[in-house]
From TrEMBL:
The keyword Lipid biosynthesis does not apply. Signal peptide: none annotated. Keywords: ATP-binding, Nucleotide-binding, Transport. The keyword Calcium does not apply. GO terms for molecular function: ATP binding; ATP hydrolysis activity. GO terms for cellular component: plasma membrane. InterPro entries: AAA+_ATPase, ABC_AA/LPS_Transport, ABC_transporter-like_ATP-bd, BCA_ABC_TP_C, P-loop_NTPase. This is Branched-chain amino acid transport system ATP-binding protein. It comes from the Bacteria. Residues 5-254 form the ABC transporter domain.
Length: 269
């Protein structure tokens, strides 16, 4: 039995442009797997393939060894949840309601009983509310349960987005640039949180992390896949990937170069 998510030889073209070519990767239960690469390397396209926003022209996906054809609205039923860049929270709902919205598919009663206010939906709602509060508590933001998201600092809103995804009790969480817009201290706290996700006592979940932030990826991932021009140029544990000449060339080299130019620019000022 092949547990977890696997991408097999995925290829995506947009007109004449090859966004992904022959990309294979696997995320097993208990793992945090990172996808990094320079701008335009194909990270977002890969994320969109797993979410079902982009259908690859070649290759296939599987979940626990069974063929997977992801559709964005069916992901949570497959045990997959995602966060997107930014927080994407509903402004008209409280923090708690936003998190409950992440788990509505687990409610046994359908929408109609809920609209009619029938007793079974009351029970469902109580269950959802309790679970949402537990997740908010786990993420250290339960005190904000009654707040409107747009009154909260970005780092808290970002956690609410994460809580909403976790409320769906996923076995696999897809994170798209979760460090975007966070300060160094918040990135450290996020790293601790991500590292713990596969080891949660209730609802442990593996993580696929697509991220620019090199320090975060190096700190939390068991394995890293490096893309460049849509191809996998390196894959392995962080310490091996960090040393890989292809990575230094494709990604770290570019970063070091950019940092050096920035330092020189500051020095000249
Ligand atoms: N919908 C689209 N139509 C046409 N080209 C696209 C589309 N989406 C992505 N591309 C192109 O595919 C390539 C890969 O883009 P992608 O956004 O996946 O890279 P990325 O690694 O996420 O980059 P970044 O770090 O800048 O977000 C790029 O050349 C991009 O311009």
């Amino acid at each position: 039995m092949e547990d977890g998510l696997a991408l097999h030889h995925i290829g995506v073209r947009f007109g004449g442009l090859t966004a992904l070519e022959d990309v294979s990767l696997r995320v097993c239960p208990g793992e945090v797997v990172g996808v990094i690469g320079p701008n335009g390397a194909g990270k977002t396209t890969l994320f969109n393939v797993v979410c079902g926003f982009v259908t690859p022209q070649t290759g296939s996906l599987s979940l626990d060894g069974r063929p997977l054809r992801p559709r964005p609205h069916r992901l949570t039923r497959l045990g997959i949840a995602r966060t997107l860049q930014g927080t994407g929270l509903f402004a008209g709902l409280t923090v708690l309601e936003n998190v409950m919205a992440g788990a509505t598919h687990t409610a046994r009663a359908g929408l109609l009983p809920a609209l009619l206010g029938l007793p079974r939906s009351d029970r469902d709602e109580r269950r959802l509310r309790e679970h949402a509060l537990t997740v908010l508590d786990e993420l250290g933001i339960a005190t904000h349960a009654g707040a409107a998201p747009d009154t909260l600092p970005f780092a808290v809103r970002q956690r609410v987005g994460l809580a909403r995804a976790l409320a769906a009790r996923p076995r696999l969480l897809l994170l798209d640039e979760p460090a975007g817009g966070l300060g160094a201290e918040d990135v450290d706290a996020l790293a601790d949180l991500i590292r713990g996700l596969p080891h949660r006592a209730a609802d442990p979940c593996a993580v696929l992390l697509v991220e620019h932030h090199m320090d975060l990826v190096m700190a939390v991932c068991d394995r890293i896949v490096v893309l460049d021009f849509g191809r996998v140029v390196a894959a392995g544990p962080p310490e091996a990937v960090r040393e890989d000449p292809a990575v230094v060339d494709a990604y770290l080299g570019a970063t070091v170069e950019a940092e050096r130019s920035e330092a020189e620019r500051r020095h000249e000022q």
